[in-house]
Here is the input.
Amino acid sequence: MTLDRVCIIGAGSSGIATAKILHQKGIPFDCFEKGSGVGGNWRYLNDNGMSSAYKSLHINSSKRNMEYSDFPMPDDYPDYARHSQILDYFEAYVDHFGFRHKITFKTEVVRVEPLINGTYNVTTRNDVGERTESYKAVIVANGHHWHPKYPKFPGEFSGTVMHSHHYKTPDGMADKNILVVGIGNSACDIACETARIANQTFLSTRRSAYILPKYMLGRPLDSYLTPFFFAMPLWLRRIYGQILLFLARGSQAEYVPVPKHPFLSEHPTITSDLLNMVGYGRVKMKPNVKELAGDRVRFEDGTEEAIDVIVYGTGYQISFPFFDKSFINPENNHLPLYKRVIHPNYPNLYFIGLFQPIGAIMPIAEWQSKWVADILAGEVVLPSPVEIKREMQIEEKRVKQQYVDSPRHTMQVDWHPYVNQIKREMKRKAKKQPRSRVVSQAGHETVSERLV
Here is the structure.
């Protein structure tokens, strides 16, 4: 039995942040990682099969806004480091704080079952076999960029089909016609990379996106995501952001269709290459796919193209293979959580990193971990169930009002406002009962107190 311990699922960027916080706070835990090393999505060719990193991948958040609070990235790292540098940073983080021995590698969590007393049975599998242990709490940090989501189009395609999750290099795509479907960050990276060797790369988008460069007026893009920026009302943020964007790169209308939805109502697409590649003619924009027709693809504007390879950059599904669907089933990426961490119906079940910010995930996951650690230590309490429900309804309404209605935006948060919310939660200190005099069995007076 391990009922004094906490189970952490995953040793990616969020899992190691949680493990470090619990380690420093003296909270016993086991961290299980399916692969042979830390890093999750940032371990290129990760043997856990869950990394979506491609060989040319660089971060979209600048290093100073991505690093953990007490472990800065090396000064000699570029503003936008490559995936191998980020992995080295994570490795150094684990060793610096000395908790690698608490991570069990090559061990998959295959089943998590809630028990009636608020604890959980966790079944793991490795080369030795399966083992089930009971834990007082479970912290889920298995990531949300590993279970590919494919669109459904009429017809059949006779060429090569892959999802961006499986794309690693453009090898084998030379002199071919490539269609990339989607206009998120990975889709645009892949379109620009394949365009350099392909006969022609096409980029298909259903509703287009606002294209943001990595640098604006000589500064990393996310350096503008200050508390002052988020303190503005949304309408003013939209105006301010679009003015900066126009000054930085002019209008995108001649290159990429301007979306009909308002600015900041979708997760941004960050690429400094796409407009150039469209300008060179190496990438040609196309509307949504209408039909697959053998070796050709027809589009909604009535055009069609001969295509050799389709790469679907169409996002991911939230997935928990260790949960029975009768327990937790995030259909259409919908999983309501209090502050994106606490499940309202299952005590002692926490989710770290299960959100999508305008900005980097890692520093926010660190704050989430601090909050959860304080709860586990009995130092912080949660609001009443009524208040939790009310706050969740308010947040869900805010997301629906601000963002395009799609599975991609079910877990959006705004960087600084969200961190401030977590900090406020951490101020809900557990109250201590007044000291009271009690008489022991031996007849001596003692002082007792307990947390409530």
Observations:
- The first strand starts at residue 2 and ends at 9.
- The longest helix spans residues 385-402.
- The chain has two domains: 2-146+317-425, 155-312.
